[in-house]
Amino acid sequence: PETDLPPLVITSELLSSAKQLAPPTPKEAIQLLVSEYNLNEELAKELLFDENYALFMDIAKLLGKGSYLKTVAWMLVQLRKALKREGFQVENITKEQYVSLSQKIYEEKITKEGVEEVIKYLCNNPSLSVDEVMDKLGLKPLDMEAINAIIKKIIEENAKIVEEKGEKAFGIIMGKAMEMLRGRAQGKIVSELVRRNINEYLSAKKG
């Protein structure tokens, strides 16, 4: 042993510090992704062992935590793998394009369906920006007034169904609205407006 060095005393404080410096175990990392980043356990497991894990953490650090991260993780892992199986050249998508799409998801300027359409297009046209692809595909988000006007028109065109089924016509009207608004409006917003417009239509009929 080296005689010029003082003996190293292993204290409880030193052990505690060492534990804090140690990287989390896979189980701890998965629990963190579930509790802190809004992921379900299955998606958290897939992400942890995926090549895009570091990119996900960079995006979360850049944009902050929130429910949007579940869609970001889905895009980076599950959607990418599914499209690769279908033969899409997902390796053409750059980190910058993923970050740009994540920003759109965070700002609620693109739907989950819209994300898939954009990535498919980018696989074959990697030189384009996310904004350029959204323009080409007509995926620019509609404002509340435009969404509301479309829903009112759908209800008017299906007035007989609404009058016969009442509030139970929600599913039919919602389906038609999402088909028409695909990729351009968030489902939760469409759902709220469909329900409100059906109730207003029925109230007006009674009045």
TrEMBL record:
What's the domain of life for this entry?
Archaea
One GO term (biological process): translation
**Entry keywords, A to Z:** ATP-binding, Ligase, Nucleotide-binding, Protein biosynthesis, Transferase
Which InterPro entries does its entry note?
Answer: Asn/Gln-tRNA_amidoTrfase_suB/E, Asn/Gln_amidotransferase, Asn/Gln_tRNA_amidoTrase-B-like, GatB_C_1, GatB_Yqey_C_2
Q: Is rRNA-binding one of the keywords?
A: no
Supply the name of the protein.
Glu-tRNA(Gln) amidotransferase GatDE subunit E
Pfam families per record: GatB_Yqey
Q: Which SMART domains match?
A: GatB_Yqey (SM00845)
Species source reads Fervidicoccus fontis
- GO molecular-function terms, A-Z: ATP binding; glutaminyl-tRNA synthase (glutamine-hydrolyzing) activity; transferase activity
Domain Asn/Gln amidotransferase intervals: 54-198
